C-alpha cells in the first residue's frame, strides 16, 4: 500500500518559520548597521567635516525592501536640494536679522509640513526633508553667514553619501524586492475576490462579513498603490508593468463597488418580496463564479487568468441577448424597472470583472497595450487638515525660536531644527502625539547610551575597527526597536539622535556640558511637539473625523459636478483613501469604523450611479435628470430630512419622465435602451437612499420615507 504524497512532506521546521518572520527582521538589522558603518568609514576616508550626518542619513532612509530605500532616497535627495536652495536664499536675505530669519524659516517649515500632510508615501517625505533640511542647514549656518555656502555644500555631500550607501547595501546584500510583494498581493487579492464573488452572488454572506472583507479591500487598494510606487525604482521589468498594476487597482475598485451595489440591490428586492425579479436573475449569478477559473481550477497566476478572461468575454457577449429573452418571458406582475436595474448592474459588473481579469492576464507578458492610457490612483486629503498641520508646525517653531532668542540658550538652535523635523514627521503619523512622545523616549535612551559611548568608550578606542565594535551593539539596539510592533517611534528617535549625539567625527570634541545641553534640547523639542499635537486641534479630536466624513460625502458632489474625464478613478480612489484615514483615526473602535464603512458604501453606490447617469446624459438633454442630480449632491453636502425628501421627489419625477418617454413609439431601439439604462440608474439611486442599512435611513424616518417605495 502506497503512502500518500502529502504524508511524506516533513512539517515546517522551526528554523524555516523563524527565517520567514524574525529572520527577516534580523537581516534588516544587520544590513542597516553594516550600511551605517560603511558610510561612516567612507565619510572619514573622504575627510568630511561631520561623518555622523552621513551615518544618520542611513537610518533615516533604510527600509526592509530595496525599492522603499531607493524611493525614499530619491525623495530625500530632492527634498534636500530644495531645502538647500531655499535656505541659501533666506540666509542671503535675513542673516543679520535673527527674528526675520527664524520667522521665515518657521513659515517655510509650516508650508512643507502642510505639503507633507497633503501628499502620500515618500512624496510626503520629500516635503518633510525640504523643511527639515532648511532648518538643519540654515540655523547653524545663519550664525556664521560667511561660511554658509561651504557648510551647506558639505552637508549635502554627507547626506548624499548616506543615501548612496544605504541604497547600495539594500540592493546588493540579500536584497528584498517590493515587486515580489506586489505580485503576491495581486495574486492573493484575485483569489480572495473570486471567493467573495461566489459568496455574495450566492447570497451566503452576512453583513458583518461583507464589512470585514470590504475594509480589507480598502487596505489592499491603498497598500498596493504604495507598494507599486516604490517597486518602480527596483528594476526595468517592474517598471514595464507598473501601469498595468495601477490599472488593476482601478478595475478592482470598480468591480468590487459594482458587486456590492448588485448584492445590496438584490437584498433590497428580497426584503420587498420581489420574487419574480430575484428568481429570473439568480441563474445568471450562479454562472459567474465558475468563469473565474482556469479550466475549472483556481487561478494561481497571471497566465492562468487568460482562460478566465476568455470565459468572461464570451459570457459578457451573450448576456444582453439572454437578458432580453428573460425579460420577455417575465410574468406581467413583475416590476420591469426593478428587473432592468438589476440586469444593468449585472452587466456592468461583468464588464468590470472582465476588464479586471484581462489586465491580470496581461501581467504574464513584459509589455502589453493595457499599459497605456492609465488613470492614476489619486489620494484625497483634506486641505483644511493639511493647513492645520502647517499652522501647528509654524507655531511650534516660532515658540521655540522665541525661547532661544530670549534665553540665549546655546542649544536653542538644536531644539529649533529638531522640532522642524519631528513636527513634520509626526504629522504624517495617524497618532502624532504618541509618535512624538515615543521619539522623546527613544532620544532619552540614546542620550544615556551616547554618554557611555562618547565619554567611556571612545577614549579607549584606537582605530576604526575597535570603534565599530564599540558602536555595533548600541546601533543594533535602535534598529531592533524599529522592527518591533508599536515601538517604531522609540527606534526612530534612538537611531537618529544617537548618531546625532554620539556619532563620531574626524575630530571628536569631548564637551560634557554641550552634550547634555543638546540632549535636553532634543527631548524638550519633541515634548513641545507632542504638547502641540495634543492641544492645538489634536488629530484624535472629533473635529477631524467629522471633517473627513464630510470630505467623504462630498465625493458624491464631485461625481455630480466634476469633469467626466478620469472621474471614475478619482472618485473611487478618493473615497477609499478617505476611509483609510478614518480607519486610522478610529484606532480599533469598531463602532466608528462601521459607521465610516456605511458611509463609504452609500457614497460609492450613489456616486457610481451618478457618474454612469452623467455619461449617458452627455448625448442628450435631460433637465429633470440634472435637477435630480443636483438634489442628490445637495443631500450629501448637507444631509437633512428636507434635502432627503427633495432628492427622493426629484429622482421619482425624473424616473416618471423617462418612463413616459419609453411609452411612446417614436424612439429607436438604441434610444430606448439608453432611456432604460438612465431609468435604472435613477431607480438604483432612489433605492440606495431608501436602504434601511444606509446612514441616510435616519433622515427618512422623519418624513416616512420608508413608505415611499
TrEMBL record:
- Report whether Transport shows up as a keyword of the record: yes
UniProtKB keywords: Cell membrane, Membrane, Transmembrane, Transmembrane helix, Transport
Record localization: Cell membrane
Question: The organism sits in which domain of life?
Answer: Bacteria
Q: GO molecular function terms here?
A: transmembrane transporter activity
Q: How does it sit in the membrane?
A: Multi-pass membrane protein
User: Which ranges does the record mark as transmembrane?
Assistant: 23-43, 74-94, 100-117, 124-141, 161-180, 383-405, 439-458, 464-482, 487-503, 515-537
- Keyword Glycosyltransferase appears in the UniProt entry: no
CC per GO annotation: plasma membrane
- Please report the name of this protein according to its UniProt entry: Fusaric acid resistance protein
Species of provenance = Caballeronia sordidicola
Amino acid at each position: 500500500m502506497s503512502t500518500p504524497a502529502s504524508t511524506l512532506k516533513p512539517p515546517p521546521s522551526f528554523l524555516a518559520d523563524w527565517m520567514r518572520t524574525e529572520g527577516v527582521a534580523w537581516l534588516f538589522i544587520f544590513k542597516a548597521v553594516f550600511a551605517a558603518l560603511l558610510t561612516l568609514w567612507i565619510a572619514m576616508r573622504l575627510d568630511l567635516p561631520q561623518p555622523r550626518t552621513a551615518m544618520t542619513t542611513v537610518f533615516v532612509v533604510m527600509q526592509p525592501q530595496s525599492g522603499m530605500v531607493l524611493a525614499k532616497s530619491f525623495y530625500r535627495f530632492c527634498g534636500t536640494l530644495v531645502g538647500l536652495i531655499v535656505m541659501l536664499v533666506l540666509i542671503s536675505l535675513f542673516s543679520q536679522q535673527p527674528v526675520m530669519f527664524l520667522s521665515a524659516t518657521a513659515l517655510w517649515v509650516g508650508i512643507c509640513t502642510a505639503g507633507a500632510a497633503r501628499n502620500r508615501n515618500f512624496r510626503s517625505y520629500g516635503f518633510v526633508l525640504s523643511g527639515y533640511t532648511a532648518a538643519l542647514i540654515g540655523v547653524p549656518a545663519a550664525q556664521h553667514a560667511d561660511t554658509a555656502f561651504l557648510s551647506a555644500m558639505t552637508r549635502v555631500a554627507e547626506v548624499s553619501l548616506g543615501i548612496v550607501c544605504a541604497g547600495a547595501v539594500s540592493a546588493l546584500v540579500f536584497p528584498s524586492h517590493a515587486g515580489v510583494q506586489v505580485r503576491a498581493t495581486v495574486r492573493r487579492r484575485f483569489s480572495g475576490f473570486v471567493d467573495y464573488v461566489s459568496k455574495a452572488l450566492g447570497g451566503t454572506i452576512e453583513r458583518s462579513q461583507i464589512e470585514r472583507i470590504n475594509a480589507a479591500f480598502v487596505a489592499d487598494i491603498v497598500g498596493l498603490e504604495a507598494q507599486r510606487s516604490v517597486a518602480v525604482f527596483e528594476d526595468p521589468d517592474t517598471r514595464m508593468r507598473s501601469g498595468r498594476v495601477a490599472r488593476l487597482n482601478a478595475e478592482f475598485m470598480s468591480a468590487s463597488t459594482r458587486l456590492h451595489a448588485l448584492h445590496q440591490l438584490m437584498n433590497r428586492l428580497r426584503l420587498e418580496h420581489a420574487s419574480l425579479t430575484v428568481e429570473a436573475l439568480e441563474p445568471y449569478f450562479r454562472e459567474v463564479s465558475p468563469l473565474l477559473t482556469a479550466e475549472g481550477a483556481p487561478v494561481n497566476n497571471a497566465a492562468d487568468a487568460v482562460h478566465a478572461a476568455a470565459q468572461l468575454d464570451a459570457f459578457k457577449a451573450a448576456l444582453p441577448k439572454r437578458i432580453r429573452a428573460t425579460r420577455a418571458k417575465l410574468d406581467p406582475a413583475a416590476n420591469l424597472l426593478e428587473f432592468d436595474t438589476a440586469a444593468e448592474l449585472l452587466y456592468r459588473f461583468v464588464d468590470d470583472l472582465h476588464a479586471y481579469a484581462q489586465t491580470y492576464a496581461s501581467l504574464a507578458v513584459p509589455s502589453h497595450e493595457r499599459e497605456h492610457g492609465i488613470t492614476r490612483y489619486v489620494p484625497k486629503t483634506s486641505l483644511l487638515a493639511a493647513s492645520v498641520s502647517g499652522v501647528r508646525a509654524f507655531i511650534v517653531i516660532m515658540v521655540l525660536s522665541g525661547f532661544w532668542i530670549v534665553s540665549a540658550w546655546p542649544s536653542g538652535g538644536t531644539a529649533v531644527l529638531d522640532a522642524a523635523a519631528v513636527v513634520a514627521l509626526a504629522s504624517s503619523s495617524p497618532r502624532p502625539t504618541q509618535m512624538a512622545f515615543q521619539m522623546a523616549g527613544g532620544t532619552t535612551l540614546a542620550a544615556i547610551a551616547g554618554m557611555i559611548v562618547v565619554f567611556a568608550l571612545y577614549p579607549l578606542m584606537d582605530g576604526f575597527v575597535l570603534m565599530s565594535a564599540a558602536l555595533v551593539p548600541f546601533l543594533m539596539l535602535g534598529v531592533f526597536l524599529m522592527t518591533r510592533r508599536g515601538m517604531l517611534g522609540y527606534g526612530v528617535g534612538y537611531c537618529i539622535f544617537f548618531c546625532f549625539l554620539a556619532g563620531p567625527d574626524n575630530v571628536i570634541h569631548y564637551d560634557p556640558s554641550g552634550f547634555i545641553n543638546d540632549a535636553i534640547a532634543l527631548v524638550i523639542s519633541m515634548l513641545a511637539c507632542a504638547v502641540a499635537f495634543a492641544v492645538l486641534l489634536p488629530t484624535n479630536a472629533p473635529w477631524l473625523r467629522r471633517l473627513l466624513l464630510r470630505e467623504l460625502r462630498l465625493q458624491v458632489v464631485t461625481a455630480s459636478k466634476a469633469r467626466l474625464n478620469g472621474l471614475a478613478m478619482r472618485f473611487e480612489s478618493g473615497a477609499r483613501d478617505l476611509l483609510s484615514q478614518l480607519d486610522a483615526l478610529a484606532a480599533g473602535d469598531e463602532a466608528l469604523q462601521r459607521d465610516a464603512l456605511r458611509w463609504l458604501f452609500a457614497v460609492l453606490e450613489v456616486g457610481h450611479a451618478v457618474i454612469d447617469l452623467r455619461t449617458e446624459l452627455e448625448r442628450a438633454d435631460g433637465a429633470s435628470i440634472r435637477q435630480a442630480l443636483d438634489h442628490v449632491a445637495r443631500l450629501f453636502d448637507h444631509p437633512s430630512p428636507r434635502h432627503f425628501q427633495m432628492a427622493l421627489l426629484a429622482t421619482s419625477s425624473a424616473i416618471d419622465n423617462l418612463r413616459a418617454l419609453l411609452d411612446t413609439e417614436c424612439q429607436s431601439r438604441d434610444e430606448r435602451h439608453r432611456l432604460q439604462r438612465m431609468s435604472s440608474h435613477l431607480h438604483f439611486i432612489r433605492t440606495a437612499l431608501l436602504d434601511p442599512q444606509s446612514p441616510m435611513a435616519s433622515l427618512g424616518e422623519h418624513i416616512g420615507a420608508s413608505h415611499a417605495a
